[in-house]
Amino acid sequence: MARMDIRRALPADLPAVAAIYGREAREGHATFDLEPLPMALWEEKLSAEGDHLLVADLEGTVIGYASSAPFRPKPAYGHTRETTVYVAPGHQGLGTGRALYDALLALLADDGVHLVVAAVALPNPASLALHRGCGFEEVGVMREVGHKQGRWIDLAWWQRRLG
Ligand SMILES: CC(C)(COP(=O)(O)OP(=O)(O)OC[C@H]1O[C@@H](n2cnc3c(N)ncnc32)[C@H](O)[C@@H]1OP(=O)(O)O)[C@@H](O)C(=O)NCCC(=O)NCCS
């Protein structure tokens, strides 16, 4: 059986991570970016203090990643993190997203993070199921806050208290 590891990302993983995200930016609606992000941003993310970038490594191939980031910059938001997770097409629906999120949430709990927030562009039944399964609760939906691929997109906000 193929072996999958969830581990911290290394600099050599960044092109694969960037490609997974870039495909979703160009072809999907899970992110409101329209184009891939420059490598410098991924390098910054990798070295960001207080946050995490994890990858799912399937026998040497990065098939997904999960990351945390500050929710908003003002200091009173300091105990809150925003998380996200992407799994490459062809590997979805096999438990990888859940494994990545479980590992990320455990690290954030160890860090003493109080609240984790996630924004899910709709429709996205897999992401809604993932967040529900990981103990998040939905706290509201912003209607038509994004416009992509010729349509307005709603954004559901989910949160989970860790502390
Ligand atoms: C959303 C995503 C990260 C989920 O990861 P995954 O590896 O496909 O999901 P998993 O196999 O770990 O399953 C997680 C849960 O979602 C459910 N699920 C998976 N695919 C589903 C689908 N297509 N429809 C409905 N539920 C689905 C699983 O049954 C599981 O629920 P459970 O815990 O109640 O059994 C992945 O599908 C993805 O990368 N999608 C594109 C990018 C994206 O939407 N990212 C999220 C941004 S908020």
Task: Describe this protein's structure.
This protein has 163 residues and is an alpha+beta fold. Helices cover 29% and strands 36% of the residues. Strands 1-2-3-4-5-7-6 form a seven-stranded mixed beta sheet, with helices on both faces. α1 (14-27) packs across α2. It is globular, with a radius of gyration of 15 Å. Coenzyme A is lined by residues 24, 30, 84-87, 92-98, 118, 120, 124-127, 129-130, 133. The site of coenzyme A has 22 residues, from β4, α3, β5 and α4.
CATH topology: Aminopeptidase
Report the order of strands and helices.
Answer: EHHEEEHEHEE
Class based on secondary structure composition and strand pairing? alpha+beta
Q: Strand-residue fraction?
A: 35-45%
Secondary structure tally, helices: 4
Query: What CATH architecture would you give?
Result: 3-Layer(aba) Sandwich
Largest sheet: 7 strands, mixed
* 3D shape: globular
User: What fraction, in percent, of the residue positions are helical?
Assistant: 25-40%
Q: Give start-end ranges of low-pLDDT stretches.
A: none
Kindly report how far apart the N and C termini lie.
37 Å
What is the count of distinct domains? 1
CATH superfamily: Gcn5-related N-acetyltransferase (GNAT)
Overall average residue pLDDT: 97
Organism: Nocardioides eburneiflavus
Domain N-acetyltransferase: 4-163
Protein name: N-acetyltransferase family protein
Pfam families: Acetyltransf_1
